[in-house]
Amino acid sequence: MHYQKKYLPLIIGAAVAVGVLVGGKLNFSDSPEKLFTKNSNKDKLNRLIDFIEYDYVEDINTDSIVDVTVNGILDNLDPHSVYIPREELASVTENMKGDFVGIGVSFYTYRDTITVIRTIEGGPSEKAGIKGGDRILLADGDSLYGAHIKDGDIVSRLKGPEGSDVNLTIYRKGEPEFLSFKVKRGIIPIKSVDAAYMLTDKLGYIKVNRFAESTYKEFKKGLDKLIDLGATEIALDLRDNPGGFLSQAEQIVDEFLGKNKLILFTKNKHGHIEESYATKRGDFENGKIYVLIDENSASASEIVAGALQDNDKGTIVGRRSYGKGLVQREMDLGDGSAVRLTVSRYYTPTGRSIQRPYKKNGHKDYYDEYSDRLERGELLDPRKIEVADSLKFTTPNGKVVYGGGGIIPDIFVPIDNSMQNETLKYILQYQFFDNFIFRQLDLDRHAYDGLSRDYFIRNFELDDSLVIKFQDYVNTQTRTKVTFVAYHDEVKHYLKATLAGQLFGNGAFEEVVNQKDVMIEEVIKLSKEL
Predict the structure, then answer these.
(1) Which GO BP annotation is one of this protein's (predicted)?
(2) Which pLDDT score is estimated for 9?
(3) Biggest alpha carbon distance in the chain?
């Protein structure tokens, strides 16, 4: 966990704008003026902006005009070529980098006060002695409480150069006076691997939430741990994973494929082809692999699933993936902003493109396809998946696979009906579980002191009364009347998972949730059949 609040993985496709990113960046060192003066059409645009700036009857922010113009141009391209304004670029880059410099806490704004949920294990705050439940009141004498304080302001005050000190004033329940801590800022990971643990004696599980710069390193650490624990099979969970860096996906695939097996190839508009092959270094080439995907698994996630499926390696389990087969490169526009421009398409080893159509009905319909799939019944019945015989391909072992719109799994698992309940989707999306559990835990943090992580996950049972309290809490927050009678067990299970995450971190939330996950149950069943 880190500064950003932990959202449950309820993605409805919009996050795939991150796309598949190639590693390199292009830097246009010319000024913005020079960039628009190469020919008459570009000069026309530059002149128009100058006319508006100098001659228009009212003062206009021409920066905003340029932003609108750039977005307008990109809207006429594909849905994944995007403009990133300079005020957003730093945070976007940081998220994909995989770490940042800070004090190492996950926090929650509770009654206008910054309250620590957990400290990062081994991080600066834990080393300094800060604990869950502590209220951070001051940072170097500056106030961090009050209705006027925004999360962005808090983060900026707690961040700083690596190795620099920040003096924190803390209120801790039970202490008669405020506490003072000097915390030395350090590198804080933004984890892209949520969990790595054993499902059975032979089946390991790894959950990857995106493909950032540090993803392969995190994945390899988790894989090595599971191998040491006796794993001969791996369930790689890429559900709700919107993608990221191409190189990270290639390195993960390389762990499972033998030397010289084709992972993918890319082709640009000039017909230039670049191929990527597996090396001999893979540590799980002889193991069994299951890849879990759903309708929100996109780009780099689809590269992994497609490469393994087309090489007849392992089993793809779940529902048809998102369908994004375009590769972007980030290009610096010279003023602190950037554009992620689609530069090529990628193809799976059999030669199929899994990019779904986007030119026919515009970008809105493209992003609304989730609803279309739901209405067609595709998320419940694999026979409703639309395929084209013209896009049929065959793997080396004779398995038929299709291009044109996502990876179709080998084993279909319908969407959990409970997740179609609008009330449950709403409370998951807006962090009601996290906020409620934090408040309950804050009433008495010592109530769970004697419980080990393993015992809590496997044996601890919440009282039914907590579900009623949660129901009352949601009603007070939304001023509506909701009831969990039909989904009492599901709500209780998510409450326990959320409590596990706040108490123990390090994948505890996923371990609890997965105990009643239908796709995980299907993978365990498949594993036992071998």
Answers:
(1) proteolysis
(2) 38
(3) 76
* Assigned token pair, 118: 């957990």
Altogether, the residues listed in the chain come to a count of: 530
Average pLDDT over residues 405-414: 96
- 193-415 is classed CATH 1.10.10.10: no
Work out the average pLDDT over 185-203. 94
Sequence-ordered list of residues with C-beta below 8 angstroms from that of 308, at least 6 positions apart, any chain: 253, 256, 257, 289, 291, 314, 316
* Nearest one of 131, 130, 225, 219 to 181, comparing CA atoms: 130
Element (H, E) at 465: helix 465-478
Domain boundaries along the sequence of the chain: 99-189, 193-415, 419-525
DSSP-assigned beta bridge partners for residue 315? 290
Q: Give the whole-angstrom CA distance, residue 485 versus residue 193.
A: 34
pLDDT, average across residues 373-389:
91
Q: What is the DSSP letter of 415?
A: P
d(Cα 144, Cα 134) in Å, to the nearest integer?
13
* CA 386 – CA 365 distance, rounded (Å): 16
Contact assessment for residue 212 and residue 242, using Cβ atoms and an 8 Å cutoff: no
Confidence of residue 27 (pLDDT cuts 50, 70, 90): low
**Which residues lie closer than 8 Å to 461 by C-beta, 6 or more apart?**
none
d(CA 229, CA 225): 6
Tell me which residues are annotated as active site: 299, 310, 324
Helix, strand, or coil here: 184? Answer: strand
Determine contact, residues 260/278, Cβ cutoff 8 Å: yes
Please, what sign has the CA dihedral across residues 30, 33, 37, 41? positive
Per-residue pLDDT tens for 415-468?
987 766 777 888 888 889 999 999 999 888 888 888 999 999 999 999 999 999
Distance of CA 222 to the CA centre of its chain: 18
Is residue 373 predicted with pLDDT exceeding 70?
yes
- The strand ranges marked E within 172-250 are 179-184, 186-189, 193-198, 203-208, 233-237, 244-245
Band of pLDDT at residue 202, cut at 50, 70 and 90: very high
CB-based contacts of 141-147 (< 8 A; 24+ apart in sequence): 141/167, 144/113, 144/114, 145/112, 145/113, 145/114, 146/112, 147/112
| Mean pLDDT over the full length of the chain | 88
Torsion angle in degrees (nearest 10) through CA of 392, 367, 17, 241: -70
Rounded Cα distance between 353 and 404, Å, is: 6
What average pLDDT score do residues 120-138 get?
92
Q: Which CATH class is domain 99-189?
A: mainly beta
Q: Partners of 424 in the beta sheet?
A: none
Whole-angstrom distance between the N-terminal and C-terminal Cα of the chain?
Answer: 37
pLDDT at 54: 84
Residue, of 26 and 305, whose pLDDT is higher: 305
pTM listed for this prediction: 0.89
